[in-house]
Amino acid sequence: MAESTKIEFRHRHIRDLDDLTDLVAIIFPGNRNQQHAAARILLALKAVETPISSLCFLEQQHDISRRTLERTRAKLARVGLIEYVSPLAKRSHGGHGWKLSRRMCAALRQLADKIDSWRSDMRPERREKDERLVGVLG
Prior knowledge:
Elements: H1 11-15, H2 20-27, H3 32-46, H4 57-62, H5 66-79, E1 82-85, E2 97-100, H6 103-120, H7 124-137
């Protein structure tokens, strides 16, 4: 049976996250080529302060196929770890290209805060609203 390629976002996996290789294994389970490409992309972006206009130099330097590099880059952008900065964006200061993003970190913190807020909200009106919403679902 083939290993699943879906992101493994389980609390035990997150708790055991220790380094970059663990992170890319969670995002790209079962695909060693994409794990390697993702680690190379993330390390390249971490090493510079300005956006990188093209990641194609990784193809030659680390023997990564163009297809693997593009698919990996697209998934990293989709999950929010990296982002493309347009030369027209105010925050780019004239530069453009790929950079590490802060959006995923902010979104995960926001999600954790919302879960904590929901769990601790014991007001009767909140419980009634939750009951009505669950009733709509089923």
